[in-house]
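Progress note, project year one: complex with nicotinamide-adenine-dinucleotide.
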Amino acid sequence: MTTPIVPLLIGGELVQSASTTLIPVTNPATQEILARVPFATAAEVERAVSAAKSAFESWKETPVGERARLMLRYQALLKEHHDEIAELLAQESGKTFEDAKGDVWRGIEVVEHACNVASLGMGETVENVARKIDCYSITQPLGVCVGITPFNFPAMIPLWMFPLAIACGNTFVLKPSEQDPLTPMRLAQLFQQAGAPAGLLQVVHGGKEVVNQLLNHPDTPAISFVGSVAVGEHIYRTGTAQMKRVQAFAGAKNHMVVMPDASKNQVLNALAGASVGAAGQRCMAISVAVFVGRSRDWIPELRDALAKVRPGAWNDPAAGYGPLINPQAKERVLRLIQEGKEAGAECLLDGTECVVDGYPDGNWIGPTLFRQVTPEMSIYREEIFGPVLIALEVDSLEQAIALINANPYGNGTSIFTASGAAARKYQHEIKVGQVGINVPVPVPLPMFSFTGWRKSFYGDQHAYGKQAVRFYTETKTVTARWFEEDSDTGVNTTIQLK
Ligand code: NAD
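Model obtained:
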């Protein structure tokens, strides 16, 4: 059987790329080649932007109810195909089926939210800002918006972007991760099936050349990016230097603080799930546990809890998580584990020799736990993006807060405690954008926004929620006076409205 080639979506048509550069899309548990993905040619990228630009002319005039109804139909189709999408997602990303379902579901929730676009995009009105003068604001779409997405949430993150952007009246060009493009492609096909007019959504595949062409194109006023810090900084600097609107969600190092008054079993379960779930390949994964005071006595039991989590293939219902996305990612994590050991950290649980029966070629790493780690070690400084947890020990909540605030990242954090006062102090003083109180992975639902801080986010307006609507629209403020009769009020040379 010949390996399928992933098509592009341009102007409402699935097209085969003319590119001669193709890379394999593999199942990370077996290395089986599922498809080959082409890196779109410059002419194809140009056609994608131009299709989006011409579709924008009529879409921006489409009534808001019609735009919302497209999202309602899309939401229904996504729900109908939920498990099928999750199965595809699990095979190309390596996630377990249950985790893949969560990835799809968290995306569907954003589509549901986009159905409220009329209320979300409402402007404001003040009557009589001066005598018989009213002032009101309206929101209008920007044009062709671009989304560049990472491998680790191939359903949720594209769905953070194009549904809301399009519901707001924009058109969109998506450049999904070249490592798992089958899921975003399926999402795009279902969007067409929901009745999206041609040109609303295009999908082009590729790597940095395609990204840079979209980033530097004169007809793409808004860029949404999610991925690593190095690329995020490049996207943000390049886009904003061209006066574009950019939101760039980047890497993370998320800490969970464990107070001695917390429920021990809750802590152990939360830490095991939040650190190695999805093989640690989540931007909100907990990668550092900060034990305060005598809670450090629980570290041996944490080791036992982690040792019980077993990686496995996507269709193994007992698997706690799957393989890493590719052999290079595995090599990188192995190198960091080795560096940790050489720097003197104590490896309490070592997953480097992990084997999974029946899957000799998978990119496996078992749960790994370090203690005696210092802030200058690379395992603490760098985002590992693997199933590796670091246990740090401090004497007070103040020390925990100072340590976390000194870390350059600010995506997510959590505190486990029975004390309202400790939780309140933590939520107030911590310089991290998403805080969980006895909740290990505090990803906000779409009525809020995904609000990473510091090195985890470059930009002003975050993903989904009201902030995304602001990101994808321009506000126009109108000051209006209507004359009931012809009258002569004289020339006014001041700036005051009278
Ligand atoms: P990545 O930065 O390698 O790739 C992201 C996207 O950028 C892909 O579409 C890729 O093709 C493109 N890209 C890669 N190199 C590029 C270059 N040099 N120039 C232009 N474009 C380039 O990230 P990844 O490995 O796919 O995803 C993992 C990273 O994403 C982690 O760092 C993780 O923390 C981060 N992430 C962050 C969030 C968040 O909300 N903060 C969410 C998910 C993932």
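The mean pLDDT is 97.
Residues 148-153, 175, 177-178, 207-208, 211, 226-228, 231, 234, 249-252, 283, 383, 385, 411, 452, 456 surround nicotinamide-adenine-dinucleotide (CB under 6 Å).
No further modelling is planned for this target in the current period.
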